[in-house]
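To whoever is on call:

I kicked off a structure prediction for a single chain this morning and the downstream step that reads the tokens threw a length-mismatch warning. I double-checked the sequence; it's 100 residues and nothing unusual in it as far as I can see. Pasting both halves so you can look.
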Amino acid sequence: MAFGVKREELERWKARAALGEIAFLTHYWHEPRFKGIKTVTKAGCDDLAKLADWCVANGLEPKYIHRRQPFPHYDLIGDKQVEILKREGLWEQLERFKLL
């Protein structure tokens, strides 16, 4: 279940992903399988090959890409989520969701 994201943010993420960019969207999340994890960042791109290459470049397994159309995405959680948000300079998301 996702919450804490505004419609405008979601639409902006979709638009960037549709342009073939690697787009990031962080939101609060509740998933009982992941105890203690309260947020997820979706790294999305409609270019599946580009998203798979991005995963490999970041030490992630492309086999875990959610191949949903029209917005395939990789769910980033935990330490890897924080690492990538920092690398991408997405400080607003890090601060807003208290990930620092």
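Update from on-call: the warning came from a stale cache, not from the record. Cleared it. Sanity check on the structure: The beta strands are 2-3, 23-29, 39-44, 73-76.
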